[in-house]
Specification:
alpha/beta; TIM Barrel; seven-stranded mixed sheet; 14 strands; 33% helix; 4 iron, 4 sulfur cluster binding; metal ion binding; Aldolase_TIM
């Protein structure tokens, strides 16, 4: 199988998903969800679970229409820290999840002020895992510290991601993130942490996150097209792009070049050339543009109401390849981030094409 064929297969997997459930998986929540985590050709892969996919995970390999796909698949075992619980009886896997082989991820605030139907991001299901009882609403800093220590000691976790639903304060949830980072760093000082939040109204909050011990930051815009933002993110789009740019620039100043990232979702209707141009502009400013295909999944307005479908594979591959070429040109790689989504790379094919 050639590198080009492998990349195209990775794109198809990202969009069509797999039938079957790998030992490391998740359902509901923020961002791309209802996925299973595997290592494919040496790279993390978070693959949607789709009962109608032609790809089947048989517990060992990925088959396509009953035939071995030719991909080198490594299965990630169920983490041992999942078997533990807090003194109050809360299971550790309700506080944080393993992503890929070595990333610990948590949503420190599992509610969002923008979750009303007229405000919600149409691709998000952040509160669904809370409603199903798979998580707790607010993660306590001391609990996260214990979970992180266990995940490092028992399962070899090497970095952590902390995201948050948006709160009603000017910090938009960043203050609780800082408390959580500080507690984890006190317990596991060697563990790099990426934080993720909306642009705080007070930019000094970005410095507070760095002072608490955060090593990298994601400020996720999802689209640089205001029409797309209003259609897909009616609440979040009330934060103007100018505020995102102010926050990104301050984050680059505080955290450094290529320690700041943002999601850009392919398949929301944005012009392809404009998306590529915008991604290059972000990269030139020191912000890693994490290109991820929109993944339709149950529990989101995009699927349950709009009937939205995944983007065309050729568009995902085109955008990923062109953005990756620019990232290579300017010497920026996701793997060089200290922690976080771009460092993991599982939800994108950028690392598969060299970025």
């Amino acid at each position: 199988m050639t590198a080009s064929t492998t990349t195209s297969t990775r794109v198809d997997l990202a969009l069509l998903g797999i039938r079957g459930t790998p030992p490391v998986n998740r359902s509901g929540g923020a961002g791309p969800t209802d996925d299973g985590h595997l290592v494919i050709d040496g790279l993390h892969a978070a693959i949607p679970r789709n009962p109608n996919s032609p790809f089947v995970f048989d517990g060992d390999q990925i088959l396509y229409d009953g035939v071995d796909s030719g991909l080198d698949v490594a299965v990630i075992g169920r983490p041992r820290f999942y078997d533990l619980q807090t003194e109050n009886g809360v299971a550790y896997d309700k506080i944080a999840k393993l992503h890929g082989r070595n990333v610990l991820a948590t949503t420190v605030l599992q509610t969002c002020i923008r979750y009303g139907e007229d405000q919600r991001c149409r691709f998000c299901s952040i509160e669904e895992s809370l409603r199903s009882g798979d998580t707790v609403a607010v993660k306590k800093p001391e609990d996260l510290a214990r979970v992180a220590r266990a995940a490092v000691d028992l399962d070899g976790v090497t970095n952590m991601v902390m995201t948050t639903g948006t709160s009603g304060g000017r910090d938009r949830g960043a203050r609780h993130l800082a408390r959580c980072v500080r507690a984890v760093k006190a317990a596991v000082p060697e563990l790099p942490i990426q934080v993720q939040c909306e642009p705080p109204a007070d930019l000094s909050t970005i410095g507070d996150l760095r002072a608490a011990g955060a090593d990298a930051i994601g400020i996720h815009v999802e689209s640089l097209d205001d029409d797309v933002r209003r259609r897909w993110m009616p609440g979040k789009s009330t934060v103007p792009l100018s505020e995102y740019w102010d926050a990104w620039r301050e984050a680059v100043r505080v955290f450094g070049r290529n320690q700041v990232s943002t999601y850009l979702l392919v398949g929301l209707g944005e012009d392809v050339d404009e998306m590529i141009s915008g991604a290059k502009e972000l990269a030139d400013a020191g912000i890693y543009p994490f290109i991820v295909p929109f993944r339709p999944h149950r529990g989101t307005l995009a699927v349950d109401i709009d009937g939205a479908t995944a983007p065309e594979p050729r568009i995902v591959e085109q955008i990923s390849r062109e953005v990756a070429a620019h990232l290579q040109l300017i010497g920026m790689a996701g793997a060089d981030q200290r922690a976080g989504c771009a460092a993991c790379g599982a939800c994108s094919i950028l690392q598969s094409v060299g970025a």
